[in-house]
Amino acid sequence: MESVTFEQGVDKGTRYRELLPQLASLFEGEPDLTANLANASAALRTCIRATSWVGFYVMKQGELVLGPFQGNVACVRISLGRGVCGTAAQERRTIIVPDVERFAGHIACDAGSRSEIVLPIFSRDGAQARDRLVAVLDVDSYEVGAFDDIDAAGLAPIAKLLGTLAW
């Protein structure tokens, strides 16, 4: 596959549905996690029109560490429970923040960021027979209220697909 493409004039829910099989195709046969996350961040940046930054924070030794991303320079390490990413990781749930200035403890890696959505990514741990938090997907926008339930619903199967990668 050379690039990620979308049908012209479609709504964002449709764009997410079109992206999912394209990501699966990108990942097929590629075992390298960094390469797959890099391609995923580029594809998501293309898909989500309102995005200013999209990337991954990977769980390493009990904290989130910056992984592949598209956008401005970012914070490198985030503690669990800190900021939107750390809170989503600690609470193991998707968080949509329409206005980051109203989120207590928001980490302003990019002062221009105004809204954010963060989804935890889980990998099935066969030994423990449960889902293990491996990363979070973080998407930011310079627009207030850029993300909503349509984004959460569209990104959820993408986060699930990402959880199937070789973590």
Distance between the termini: 23 Å
CATH superfamily: GAF domain
CATH class: Alpha Beta
Shape: globular
Q: SSE order, as H and E? A: HHEEEHEEEH
Strand order, biggest sheet?
3-2-1-6-5-4
**Low-pLDDT windows of residues:** none
CATH topology: Beta-Lactamase
Instruction: Please give the count of helices.
Output: 4
Number of β-strand runs: 6
Describe this structure in words.
By secondary structure, the protein is of the alpha+beta class. The chain has one domain: 2-Layer Sandwich (Beta-Lactamase), CATH 3.30.450. The chain is 32% helix and 28% strand. It contains 4 helices and 6 strands. The protein has helices spanning 12-27, 33-47, 83-91, 149-162, and strands at residues 51-60, 63-70, 77-79, 95-97, 115-125, 130-141. It has a 6-stranded antiparallel β-sheet with strand order 3-2-1-6-5-4, sandwiched between helices. A hairpin with a 4-residue loop joins strand 5 (115-125) and strand 6. Helix 1 runs antiparallel to helix 2 (33-47) and helix 1 runs parallel beside helix 4. The longest helix is centred in the N-terminal third of the chain and has 16 residues, at 12-27. The chain is globular, with a radius of gyration of 15 Å. The two termini are 23 Å apart.
Précis, in short:
With 167 residues, this protein is α+β, with helices and mostly antiparallel strands.
Annotate the secondary structure layout.
Elements: H1 12-27, H2 33-47, E1 51-60, E2 63-70, E3 77-79, H3 83-91, E4 95-97, E5 115-125, E6 130-141, H4 149-162
Antiparallel strand pairs: 1-2, 1-6, 2-3, 4-5, 5-6
Helix pairs in contact: 1-2, 1-4
